[in-house]
Write a structure and sequence with these properties.
Blueprint: E1 12-16, H1 29-41, E2 46-49, H2 61-75, E3 81-84, H3 90-103, E4 107-110, H4 119-133, E5 139-143, H5 145-148, H6 154-163, E6 167-172, H7 178-187, E7 197-200, H8 207-212, E8 217-218, H9 225-236, H10 240-257, H11 263-273, H12 291-309
Parallel strand pairs: 1-2, 1-8, 2-3, 3-4, 4-5, 5-6, 6-7, 7-8
Helix pairs in contact: 1-2, 2-3, 3-4, 4-6, 6-7, 9-10, 10-12
Length: 315
């Protein structure tokens, strides 16, 4: 079972896990275990599964449950695991969320449903969600309007923090979003608004600045989790220049991973190269690297790993 549920003080690096597939497109059970071991071996604080990177929308309900159960069993309580549970209907969402919690999840991640960008509608949805889930299921609110098409203001996030005790964490991915992050951080943990944990996504592209703005860590899927771990550790220790030096060493490949509509294939190719998964396949419709892409990526990997060796201490 999970070591603990996520809460308002949760911090560190919650790696967003890919979902590995075989060459025929089936969920790869052997690579799933290997990937969990890879992430844990690089010192992550927690894991998040069945998010956008995890291609959750391309899995059948049975596959999603099977994958969640296998990951949670493999982790075996060593770190908390958040399970993506966004769904069109609250009944299906509640059923899957309760299944995940019963299997040992530490909380669930939910994004707002597509629809008009009206703050009252977003508030109403999360009120219904929390009522449906019950008080014992911690919620990470995913704010990713570039994908969901639903922007959420800092004021609404703070209102939900006050009104819905289950919402204990924000996955911050709005872009540009640094001012918004600052507004949420300074507006929470006050006399009238509880503190909310803030972990940041977007591949980690702005991680040093987000940490300086008060973020508690990262929740993203960069294929070099050791970079995220070291940047967060160094920054929290007051070694801000060290954190930025490590980040800068990985920046070219991190940026390459963040290409819209293509980055998932890159990330899986890096994970395959590093021995974490056996196959880099994405489910159709999905991106695929060609021979020129592969050669370009291998050159970036080689240059990145050589640059990292030149850091004062290895990351």
């Amino acid at each position: 079972m999970a070591t603990r549920n996520i809460g308002r003080e949760t911090s560190g690096v919650f790696i967003i896990s890919a979902t590995p597939f075989t060459e025929t497109g089936a969920v790869d059970a052997a690579s799933t275990d290997r990937l969990v071991d890879f992430y844990l071996g690089h010192g992550v604080t927690g894991m998040t599964i069945l998010g956008i990177l995890g291609e959750a929308n391309k899995l059948t309900p049975e596959e999603a449950r099977g994958f969640a159960a296998q990951v949670l069993a493999r982790v075996d309580g060593r770190v908390p695991v958040i399970v993506g549970a966004s769904a069109a209907g609250l009944d299906n969402l509640r059923s899957f969320a309760h299944f995940a919690m019963d299997q040992g999840a530490a909380g669930i991640m939910v994004a707002p449903t597509p629809g008009p960008s009206v703050e009252d509608r977003v508030r109403g949805y999360f009120h219904q969600l929390c009522e449906a889930l019950g008080p014992d299921v911690p919620v990470c609110l995913q704010d990713f309007p570039q994908t969901t098409g639903v922007p959420i203001s800092a004021a609404t996030i703070l209102t939900l923090t006050r009104e819905c005790p289950q919402i204990v964490m924000l996955k911050h991915e709005d872009c540009p979003g640094l001012a918004k992050l600052s507004a949420v951080r300074t507006g929470s943990g006050t006399a009238d608004t509880p503190r909310i944990s803030i972990l940041c996504g977007n591949g980690g592209l702005y991680l040093p600045q987000e940490l300086s703005r008060g973020a508690d860590g990262a929740m993203t899927g960069f294929a070099y989790p050791e970079m995220l771990v070291e940047v967060v550790r160094a920054h929290r220790a007051g070694e801000v220049d060290r954190a930025e030096d490590v980040f800068d060493a990985y920046l070219p490949i991190l940026r390459y991973e963040q290409q819209p509509g293509y980055g998932l294939a890159v990330r899986k190719a890096v994970l395959r190269h590093r021995g974490a998964i056996a196959c880099a396949r994405t489910r159709s419709p999905g991106p695929k690297l060609g021979p020129i892409d592969e050669a370009e990526l291998m050159r970036l990997i080689a240059r990145t790993e050589e640059r990292v060796k030149g850091l004062p201490t290895g990351a």
